Here is the input.
Amino acid sequence: MSPFEYAPAPESAAVVDIASSYGLFIGGQFVPATGGTPFKTVNPATEEVLAEVSEASTDDVDAAVAAARTAYTRVWSRMSGADRGKYLFRIARILQERAREFAVLETLDNGKPIKESRDVDLPLAAAHFFYHAGWADKLDHASLGPNPRPVGVVGQIVPWNFPMLMLAWKVAPALACGNTVVLKPAETTPLTALLFAEVCQQADLPPGVVNIVTGAGATGQAIVDHPGIDKLAFTGSTAVGKMIARSIAGTRKRATLELGGKAANIIFDDAPIDQAVEGIVNGIFFNQGHVCCAGSRILVQENIAEDLDRRLKRRLATLRVGDPMDKNTDVGAINSRKQLDRIEEMVAIGEAEGAQRWDSGCELPTNGFWFRPTVFSGVSQTHRIAQEEIFGPVVSVLTFRTPAEAVAKANNTPYGLSAGVWTEKGSRILWMADQLRAGVVWANTFNKFDPTSPFGGYKESGYGREGGRHGLEAYVTTAGPLERASEAARSKGASK
Ligand code: NAP
Ligand code: MG
Here is the structure.
């Protein structure tokens, strides 16, 4: 039981209109799907059905790619960067104006606390459009190589943990660089992408520049396999990322893969301990731990391990778990029954491996999918809970004695997405950042994002960067005239 009682402060669901069923967004219009089986998306906090969504078949994906190709060759790649930028600024402003509607819809469909969708996902999504709007007419000055040109039609596949934010990470740079897109949201969280389709209409974006096809893995695979796709941008699990890399091997398709992670959050004995506790909470309990770069492994210096354990558990007992629409809620619902099953399975493995399990003991709602904030101590490096992604509100605690040991343990996973370092010493931060095989290293903070900062992984966390100037590189080609001529011929063939 939390020692604090709060009056509920529910956000209103009435600010958003959810249709009973949705078509696909192809060529600037909502169209019925041909042949797929419609599926339902639910609110994971209540298990209530929110809407029925279309499954795009391979024919539908074909139509979406054709619409994207036409828009690319006839309009978007010919438009000046300054004009493309105007559309992106317009989209960014509309996202800000309709932020409350988007935040509520994201929370209903995904289960994340409204204070996160309102204060993190939506402001950052708009910021990505603003940032990339600014680049659209300055690509010649972005050190991308001589005469940067768009790549063509981009297939984009995103997961369910940050549906709108991942859409923004993908669509904004693609459009800024003059590409057109076919995007598939995750099966359990399609609604904000469909609302974004309305925003494209509202912004008068030329038809076909953005196409949104809903569906599950098979629809994603149809995008991956489509010969008319020039580049793929995928965010999701390492297993599916590997399948995609295999599928496109030997083709001319380019890809960026943003995959899983198992970040170390490293606490030295000179760290400001209460701030480090807040950093741990933000690192692993933000978005129920459904975060690729979550600080899911705490590495704590041995002489402060007991103190940290006590303070962390005292803090976790105050986390409010429950109704995501309540503005007081800290930890919302697990996104789906399937994900809850995965978390429970991994936690059972951790117990069987001999680690000690502790949870906050808070009450949970009766309906919906929930998991209590959980800490495993006595974890060793060989444990599966120290090596594999759990993707839920579960953290493993390991100890170390020296900086070199912290580095060796932090790097001892197949992943390399992010890491956190907590210490008072600036020189140690720089040394650690140099030694850690992680795309992002946070110092005395965690899970901070900004569109100007590139994000991406090493090793099995994928390749390519999103955000910042580096993120533009994936969306342009600086091929010479001969190569461009042969690419143009190929695109012409693919659009037939
Ligand atoms: P996932 O199963 O790989 O799904 C990601 C997306 O791929 C979904 O839209 C999914 O469709 C689709 N998909 C599934 N099978 C496919 C196939 N054969 N071909 C093409 N597309 C396919 O991942 P998830 O479990 O939803 O997401 C969690 C994972 O994403 C975690 O591993 C997390 O670390 C990673 N992630 C990484 C980053 C990053 O930036 N590195 C950011 C966020 C999340 P359906 O869901 O509709 O089946
Ligand atoms: Mg849903």
